[in-house]
Amino acid sequence: MMFLESLSRENRGKRALVRPLFGETIFPASFPGEGATKVKKEHITLPADPADIEDFDVSPEAMDRGQRARMIRKTRTALGLSQAEFASRFRVPVGTLRDWEQARATAPDFAIAYIRVIGMHPDLVAKVMA
Question: How much of the chain exceeds pLDDT 90, in percent?
């Protein structure tokens, strides 16, 4: 997001909110405390909603991380377990589980496979891990 001076006659001198396109993050040097223009070049999977000023573009990596987080959280909640109970029963560090569920870290492929097996056979996996 950035603000630009309006060039139209009736709005001259007023600032307008403008969303960057194609993953660009622009910081105009004209604002106090802001640096020079910085542009991130990444493909956008889901563009920001122009009606929501707090919305942001989502990259393919972020979309994948979010989908993995949702799958892990849904598996855990379907079993009726808290994060601490799930982590203890299936030998996953609770901090790691929390990071995966909150999409702060991307769960690796082997972890996703493990979570899927847990979702299909929770008692068997718990017995094997005991």
Answer: 45
Which of 116, 110, 118 lies closest to 85 in space, CA to CA? 118
Residue 36 in this model has a pLDDT that exceeds 50? no
For the stretch 80-130, pLDDT in tens is 999 999 999 999 999 999 999 998 999 999 999 999 999 999 999 999 998
Residue 61 · residue 33 · CB < 8 Å: no
Is residue 65 within 8 Å of 54, Cβ to Cβ? no
Distance between CA atoms of residues 48 and 26, nearest Å? 15
Backbone dihedral region for residue 62 (phi beyond 0: left; psi -120 to 50: alpha; all else: beta):
alpha
pLDDT value, residue 105: 93
Closest CA to 86 of 96, 76, 74: 76
Coil, strand, or helix at residue 6?
Answer: coil
DSSP 126: H
Locate 41 and state its tokens: 């070049």
End-to-end CA distance of the chain: 51
Radius of gyration of the chain (CA): 22
